[in-house]
Amino acid sequence: MSHASAETPICLSFGALQQWHAALQNAVAHSEAPDALGHLAAAISQLVAVESMMISLECQGQAPQLLYQQGIPEQHRDAILNRYFAAGYLLDPFCLAVESGLAQGFYHLEDIAPDHFFDSDYYKTYYLGTGCSEDSYFIADIGDARKISLSLFQGCSGSRLSTEQVHLLRAVEPMVRELLARFARHGLAQTGNTGGHNSLQAAFDSFGCQVLTDREREVAHMILRGHSAKSTASELGISPETVRMHRKNLYQKLQINSQSELFARFIDWLREG
Based on the domain organization, do 29 and 154 belong to the same domain? Predict the structure, then answer.
């Protein structure tokens, strides 16, 4: 997916432009109201036909907290809203990127996903398994180590966002961030979410700690996140051959034979925790 540039034309018909301006005006007028996020979602829907949206509070070191959602199909709500917020977020590339200090802005899944993410069991379970094939993401920094994320999901209809639609979303990113920040100032309590794991890193560090070495756990975490042996080697400063050796050893110690089994073991451990 290409990024917008100064030379990229972004055009709306006169009628579509009128609808977007009206919806944006309405969102601004309600930006300090309790239903501000619903009006923001409606404005974005006037700009680009989005299948579903999810707005979350991201507090450093804690599980994300759902603030608003629309359009998530009934049959996928348990997987997305319950399993994701309880444990699945721990392997989500956006959550991991935010935890690592991802700057506010607009991102597409392909911008930040590891090199083998689209072949990972996490992608198959939490994206393809819930009818989603792509995800775009607004992030607004609201201070106190907190951010608000607005995720846009596509895939249930089999269609993807066009290059022009992605450019439009990227172009309105400053306005979306401002509206999210206004909501945070006027409609969001200052106390963050305290549910779930107290620390993302602690959740990873304790997985397999009784049988795996520190390096083997690091390699396991990189595999779970969707990194290849080459990418893992680059991140950890070791050779791909050493990564493969650690992978073989950790599989033997955990009595598993594949990435799929490693993913299943990790998810089972999260549920038990």
Answer: yes
The structure tokens 């907290």 sit at 65
166 within 8 A of 49, measured Cβ to Cβ: no
Question: Which helix (H) or strand (E) element contains residue 252?
Answer: helix 240-254
Q: Does residue 26 lie in a domain region?
A: yes
Per residue in 28-51, pLDDT (tens digit) is 999 989 999 999 999 999 999 888
Whole-number Å distance between alpha carbons of 121 and 119: 7
Q: Compute the distance between CA of residue 273 and CA of residue 261 in angstroms, rounded to an integer.
A: 18
State the pLDDT at residue 85: 85
User: Is-above-0.85 flag for pTM?
Assistant: no
CATH number at residue 118: 3.30.450.80
Q: Domain range holding 268?
A: 207-272
What whole-number distance in Å separates Cα of residue 23 and Cα of residue 27?
A: 6
Residue 114 lies in a domain: yes
- pLDDT of the residue at 201: 64
What's the one-letter identity of residue 219? V
Across the range 185-195, mean pLDDT stands at: 60
Kindly report the CATH number assigned to the domain that includes residue 246: 1.10.10.10
Tokens representing 106 are 């607009």
What's the number of domains the chain is made of? 2
Burial zone of 34 (CB within 10 Å; 0-12 exposed, 13-18 middle, 19+ buried): exposed
Which pLDDT belongs to residue 78? 86
pLDDT: which is higher, 156 or 162 = 162
Structural domain contains residue 153: yes
CA gap 59, 64 in Å, rounded? 7
Residue 154 forms part of a structural domain: yes
Coil, strand or helix: which one is 67?
strand
Alpha helices in 84-239 (DSSP H): 84-86, 93-99, 109-112, 121-126, 163-171, 173-187, 200-206, 214-225, 229-236
